[in-house]
Design brief:
The chain has about 325 residues and is of the alpha+beta class. It folds into two domains: about 35 residues; about 270 residues, Immunoglobulin-like, CATH 2.60.40. It has a seven-stranded mixed sheet. A three-stranded antiparallel sheet has the order 3-6-5, with no helix packed on it. Strand 5 and strand 6 form a beta hairpin. The longest helix is centred in the first third of the chain and has 21 residues. The chain starts with a helix and ends in an 8-residue tail after the last strand. About 5% of the residues have low confidence.
Length: about 325
C-alpha cells in the first residue's frame, strides 16, 4: 500500500487524500492485530464466512489437503462412493443395498507408508441383520482365491500392493509400502451388497436413512452417487451432512451434533436421463461399473434415478453423509 500511495503522490495526488488512505490502512492493520493476529489468520476466518455454500471453507480444505498429504505421505485424486438401492423382490418392506467405494490415483509420497484405505464397519439400532448376520456379498470375484470385496475389473493391475485384514472391529483394506509418486499410483475399487439390507419404512425408533463416505486419505475431489429405483423417490432428495469424524449411524434427523458437524453445505444434483448419465472423467469405466452393479442387483437401468455430490477437498477424517426421511409404512386395509 505504501508503494502504491508513493506512486500516486509522484503523479500529483493530493496529500490530504493520501493521508486519509494511510490512516485507514493503519487502522485496518490494528484491527487485524487486535482480533486475529495476522493476515493469514484473517483469511481463514473469512473463508469460514463465505456466502456461497459450495465455497465454504474451500481454501482451508485445500491447504489441509496439501499439508495432510505431506504429513501422512499419501494422497489421491478422487474418492468415489456409489450406493444403489432397490426394493427387495421377496419382501417389499426391505431394500437391497450395494455399495462401491474407491480411490482413484492413490499414490504414496513416502515409500514406507502403510495406510488403511477402507475400514469396513457395521452399525445397527437393534436386531438389524447388518449387525447380527453380516451377509455382505462381494459384487465381483477378486480372482485371488479369497472372499474379498476388491473389484479387479475396475482397479489397477498391481493390487498385490493391497492387503485385506480382519480385525475385531471389522475389515481393513490397507495399501502396503511401495513406489513413490506417479509410477506407484493405483486405482482401488471395492464393492459388496446385501439383500434385504435395510428397512424401506420408518419404525418407532428409526425414521432416517443414511449413506455415507468416510474420508480416510487426503483427496482432491469426492464423488458420491446415490442410484435408486424410481419407486424410492424419498431417497433422492437427501440432505448432505459433513461430520468432522466418523459418526455413528442411526441418528434421528435434525439431531446432528453441533460440535462435530462442519459448516460445509454442498448439495446434490440429479443426473439427467433414463437411464441416468453416470459417466464422469474422475472415475475410469464408471458407466460400466454402474451397469454391472445394477445387473448384479437385478435392477433395470431404465427404472433407476440418480443424484450426485461433488465436493472439493473433503476434510481428512470426515464422514460425508446422505440423510433422508423414510416414509411411513402402508396402512393395512
Amino acid at each position: 500500500m505504501g508503494i502504491f500511495l508513493d506512486a500516486l503522490e509522484s503523479w500529483g495526488a493530493q496529500q490530504l487524500d493520501l493521508q486519509a488512505v494511510r490512516d485507514a490502512a493503519e487502522r485496518f492493520e490494528e484491527v487485524i492485530e487486535l482480533h486475529v493476529g495476522d493476515r493469514p489468520t484473517l483469511q481463514l476466518v473469512l473463508d469460514g464466512l463465505a456466502p456461497g455454500a459450495a465455497d465454504r471453507l474451500e481454501m482451508s480444505r485445500k491447504l489441509a489437503f496439501r499439508d495432510n498429504s505431506g504429513i501422512y505421505g499419501v494422497q489421491a485424486r478422487t474418492r468415489m462412493a456409489l450406493h444403489v438401492l432397490a426394493p427387495n423382490a421377496d419382501d417389499p418392506g426391505k431394500l437391497d443395498l450395494a455399495m462401491v467405494r474407491g480411490y482413484i490415483g492413490f499414490r504414496r509420497l513416502r515409500p514406507l507408508v502403510r495406510w488403511p484405505m477402507f475400514q469396513m464397519r457395521a452399525w445397527s439400532t437393534g436386531d438389524d441383520q447388518m449387525m447380527t448376520h453380516q451377509r455382505w456379498e462381494p459384487i465381483e470375484a477378486s480372482g485371488n482365491g479369497q472372499q474379498t470385496c476388491l473389484m479387479p475389473s475396475f482397479s489397477s493391475a498391481n493390487l498385490l500392493e493391497i492387503c485385506t485384514e480382519t480385525t475385531p472391529e471389522g475389515i481393513d483394506i490397507v495399501a502396503m509400502p511401495g513406489p513413490v509418486g506417479n509410477f506407484g499410483a493405483i486405482d482401488c475399487i471395492v464393492g459388496d451388497m446385501m439383500r434385504s439390507a435395510v428397512s424401506r419404512y420408518r419404525s418407532a425408533d428409526d425414521g432416517t436413512g443414511e449413506l455415507g463416505a468416510a474420508i480416510t486419505v487426503p483427496v482432491e475431489t469426492l464423488v458420491v452417487d446415490l442410484v435408486a429405483h424410481e419407486d424410492l423417490a424419498f431417497a433422492l432428495t437427501p440432505k448432505v451432512v459433513v461430520f468432522g469424524h466418523v459418526a455413528p449411524h442411526g441418528r434421528p434427523s435434525g439431531r446432528e451434533d453441533a460440535l462435530t458437524t462442519l459448516p460445509i453445505m454442498d448439495e446434490v444434483r440429479e443426473l439427467s436421463g433414463r437411464p441416468p448419465a453416470m459417466a464422469t472423467p474422475r472415475v475410469p469405466k464408471y458407466s460400466d461399473l454402474v451397469v454391472q452393479v445394477c445387473k448384479w442387483l437385478g435392477c433395470p437401468l431404465d427404472k433407476m434415478r440418480a443424484v450426485r455430490l461433488e465436493m472439493k477437498y473433503p476434510p481428512l477424517g470426515a464422514n460425508v453423509v446422505f440423510r433422508f426421511e423414510l416414509p411411513d409404512p402402508p396402512q393395512m386395509s
